[in-house]
Amino acid sequence: MTLSRRRFLIISASFALTPKIASAQTWKGRAFGADVSLTIRGANEPAKAALAEARRVISQVESLFNLYDSTSALSRLNATGELLQPAPQFLELMRAANNAHAITDGLFDPSIQPLWKALAEGRSPTAAIDAIGWERVRFGARAVRLEKAQELTFNGIAQGFATDLVTEALRSHGLENALVNIGEYRSLGGPWQLALRDPIHGDLGMRTLRGGAIATSSPDTTPLGPNGHILHRSAQPKWSSVSVEAATATLADSLSTAMVLASRDEIEVMRKKVEISRITLVDQSGDLITL
Predict the structure, then answer these.
(1) Peptide bond preceding 191: is omega within 30 degrees of 0, i.e. cis?
(2) pLDDT, tens digit, 9 for 90 and up, residues 192-222
(3) Distance CA 259, CA 216 (A)
(4) Which of 152, 186, 200, 225 would you label with 169, given CA atoms 20 to 30 Å apart?
(5) Are 146 and 137 in contact (CB under 8 A)?
(6) How far is CA 92 from its chain centroid?
């Protein structure tokens, strides 16, 4: 399997002990704006139940954070500036984003959505940059509130969040050997071998997962303006790609996104604030640095 930032979802999973009477339960559809394929191998009834639970989790996360769905909670928040009584999972992701914002000294900032829209639509970014500022977002159990002209995107963390939720759902159904990929990877059991790929410089090595998660961010995977799709109000990308290995895909996803914008010294400061297994940096020349 190839490790890169891309918009599709694959779950490959099997029960640790598979009886002779077993089959593969498969579902294909759309989620997170991409084609989806889920396959779970094992005894018929447990595999069916695990597949149904994975689909339920994916549907639930989409209903909260999908920017391509005007009825999602996030789309409604962006349209009105207010979301009353947000769902517990919405608040959970808000707290995770707030934690990543603190760890990265503001380099991770979900309030960059106005800038993304301005660049995508070919408009001047000046007004959009003025709207950016996660520190101005207010949230709690009663409501989430944005300031005028603010909008949020969780595209730098929601895929990791969904990956964690699906992984835990599979674990709750007895699965002990699974690789979940929703743009980011998290594993149960293993070992799972993943190829480390940079969009400019190609294959650069292998990574092995035995539990835990890995996320890769590369600004050049999606052209948007002169510096790709990973945006900030002032910082510019400093790396061709960054991979982060951590206990959860939520953390790995958010930190890999922010570290693309960080200097080597800033990354060293970040890694002292939180437990990270490994960071892989690929510079613009294709040289690989492992921390």
Answers:
(1) yes
(2) 888 888 888 878 888 998 999 999 998 877 7
(3) 10
(4) 152
(5) yes
(6) 14
The pLDDT tens digits of the residues spanning 222-239 come to 766 666 778 888 889 999
Spatial separation of the C-alpha atoms in residues 17 and 63, rounded to whole Å = 34
Segment 80-102 shows an average pLDDT of 98
Q: How far apart are CA 79 and CA 272, in angstroms?
A: 38
Q: Write down the pTM of the prediction.
A: 0.90
DSSP states of 225-254 as a string? Answer: TBT-S---SS-----SEEEEEES-HHHHHH
- Read off the DSSP letter of residue 224: B
Structure tokens at 244: 């982060």
Q: Are 144 and 83 in contact (CB under 8 A)?
A: yes
Contacts of 96 (CB under 8 A, 6+ apart): 157, 161, 250, 251, 254
Each residue's pLDDT tens digit, 9-26:
566 766 665 555 566 677
Q: What is the pLDDT of residue 195?
A: 87
